Amino acid sequence: MNPQTGAMLLAFFGAPGWVELMVVGLIVLLLFGNRLPSVMRSLGQGITEFKKGVKSGETDVNGEIEDHGKSQ
Fold it and tell me: Could you give the CA distance from residue 64 to residue 72 in angstroms, rounded to a whole number?
């Protein structure tokens, strides 16, 4: 299949609408519904740890800038 044929095929089907997205979401929910709470919990913990890391990185950098200014 050449790139032009692929582009024409994609243009023929178009972007998925809200009905198609709902069907896909329902299928995903049925397949992975029992694991979804643990995945979301892990995602939330990861975001929290990322925010803590960014916040501590900002304070470390600010502290180094202040220490460098005092030593000169």
Answer: 13
Contact (Cβ atoms closer than 8 angstroms) between residue 3 and residue 11: no
Instruction: Compute the distance between CA of residue 12 and CA of residue 21 in angstroms, rounded to an integer.
Output: 18
Cα 45 from Cα 53, distance rounded (Å): 12
> Which amino acid, one-letter code, is at 24?
V
Q: Is 14 left (phi over 0), alpha (psi -120 to 50) or beta?
A: left
Q: Which residue has 């299949």 as its token pair?
A: 1
Instruction: Report the C-alpha gap between 5 and 47 in whole angstroms.
Output: 41
Question: DSSP code of 34?
Answer: T
Q: How many residues does the chain have?
A: 72
11-37 pLDDT per residue, tens = 667 777 889 889 998 998 898 888 888
